[in-house]
Amino acid sequence: MLLKYLGAALILISAPGLGMYLAGQWKERLRLLEKLRQMIYFLKGEITYSHAPLAEALERVGRRSGGPLGDMFVRASERICTQEGESLQEIWSGETRTMAAGAKNLPLTRADLEQFTALGEHLGYLDVDMQERTLLLYLEQLDLSIEYLQAHRQEKCRLYTSLGVMGGIFLVIVMC
User: Domains in the chain: how many in total?
Assistant: First the structure.
């Protein structure tokens, strides 16, 4: 009987915790995408106004921003500078895979990572205007994602926490 009550107590604690975790992931994804938008604006400025080469621009933005995205920018810059015969597309996609695999708590979805990887396909070749247009297109996609997350943040976070609490209560009732 004691184990039954202990199990019910653990469920009543862990189920709302799971709901709060999912709500936190939603907020963290929003924060990370906003930081990525800021980094892309910095990268656009480095390329457009200071006419910095892509490797140098990536390094400056990565060092200024930090975090897993900043580290990814710095690693991509280092791989570009070593000139091992890889294209920027290969370097970029490899670094995004490494970033996604290395940061287990990265709250980005598969669609976010695919869009971020697609940015590397068109970056680094042609002229400054084309690179600026590529970055602006990615920024538009990023703004749509951020707008969606902001519009639904309150209702999704409330939904996740409520479902956690109600799911825990339902599970305890079914088990007892």
Answer: 1
Q: Of 27, 49, 12, 15, which Cα lies nearest the Cα of 150?
A: 27
Angle between helices 128-175 and 2-48 (to 10 degrees): 170
For 24-51, the pLDDT digits (tens) are 999 999 999 999 999 999 999 998 898 8
Nearest to 152 by CA among 23, 33, 16, 20: 23
pLDDT digits (tens, 9 = 90+) for 113-148: 899 998 888 887 778 888 889 899 999 999 999 999
Instruction: Domain of residue 117: give its range.
Output: 2-175
What single DSSP character describes residue 27? H
Distance between CA 152 and CA 52 in Å, rounded? 38
Those residues whose C-beta lies under 8 Å from the C-beta of residue 154, and which sit 6 or more positions away, are: none
Burial of 167 (0-12, 13-18, 19+ CB in 10 A): middle
